[in-house]
Design goal:
This protein is of the alpha/beta class. It is globular and about 45 Å long. The strands form two sheets. It has a five-stranded parallel β-sheet, with helices on both faces. Strands 6-5-7 form a three-stranded antiparallel β-sheet. It has two domains: 157 residues, 3-Layer(aba) Sandwich (Rossmann fold), CATH 3.40.50.300; 37 residues, no CATH class. 29% of the residues are buried. Helix 2 packs across helix 3. It starts with a strand and ends in an 8-residue tail after the last helix. It has eight helices and eight strands; from the N terminus they run E-H-E-H-H-H-E-H-E-H-E-E-E-H-E-H. The chain binds adenosine monophosphate (AMP).
Length: 215
């Protein structure tokens, strides 16, 4: 059983790296932001509660987030483990998480703020299946169209200059202290997120003592 947390500033590649690790080691990828986005898209009650907060780049209340995470983990469909992305984002969430789960490692993707803006503004998401694109180095075949399902590629509602400024401020102010909690427990491996995704993937595996990729 492998249980990981992945942390990093917006655009550092958390989603991409989590998906690769999950696919290769049969882990369940739990992305809290994706769960909220699904709820917004599908007009659920939860979606209505979080939509504006998310669009402004602000953090959803701890109670709501903890509810979503607990419910997801209680499904126990993670026979080989999980990788959780986008949580915990502040000290309270970290304590809540550590009370219930022991973890094997925290992957910290490091990216300078100057690079964050460039990446986030180039990010596109399939409105239909949620697949992530980056117009810098993973453009779709046909402009504006998802390679997997043909859905329309859109910008995330919170990938604007204003919302990004709020999210970066929160990241540095609230999420960095979470890293300190995890560092004290010696869980954290810090990885340079600037190289291409395969190099970052290899660095993660090496740091976590996982077998190298055969792809
Ligand atoms: P992400 O896709 O991880 O950037 O998350 C998108 C948005 O979902 C964030 O800007 C928050 O509004 C909300 N969100 C996701 N995870 C959390 C969390 N752990 N705590 C509070 N809000 C969250």
């Amino acid at each position: 059983m492998r249980k990981y947390v992945i942390m990093g500033v917006q655009g550092s590649g958390k989603g991409t790296q989590s998906a690769m690790l999950a696919a290769d080691f049969d882990l369940v990828h739990i992305a809290v932001g994706d769960i909220f986005r699904w709820n917004v898209q599908n007009h659920t009650k939860l979606g209505a509660l979080v939509r504006r907060i998310m669009a402004a780049g602000e953090l959803v209340s701890d109670d709501l987030v903890e509810g979503v995470v607990s419910e997801r983990l209680q499904r126990h469909d993670w026979n080989y483990g999980f990788i959780i992305d986008g949580f915990p984002r502040n000290e309270r969430q970290a304590e809540f998480f550590l009370e219930s789960y022991d973890i094997d490692g925290v992957i910290h993707l490091e990216l300078p703020d100057s690079e964050v803006r460039r990446r986030v503004m180039a990010r596109r998401l399939c409105a239909n299946c949620g697949l992530d694109y980056n117009l810098i180095d993973s453009s779709p075949h046909d402009e504006g169209k998802c390679d997997a399902c043909g859905g329309k590629l859109v910008q995330r509602e919170d990938d604007t200059e204003e919302a990004l400024a709020v999210r970066l401020r929160d990241y540095h102010g609230k999420t960095n202290p979470v890293l300190d909690i995890f560092r004290r427990k010696e869980y954290v491996v810090s990885i340079d997120a600037r190289p291409d995704k395969e190099q970052v993937r290899d660095a993660i595996r090496c740091a976590l003592d996982l077998p190298p990729s055969d792809r």
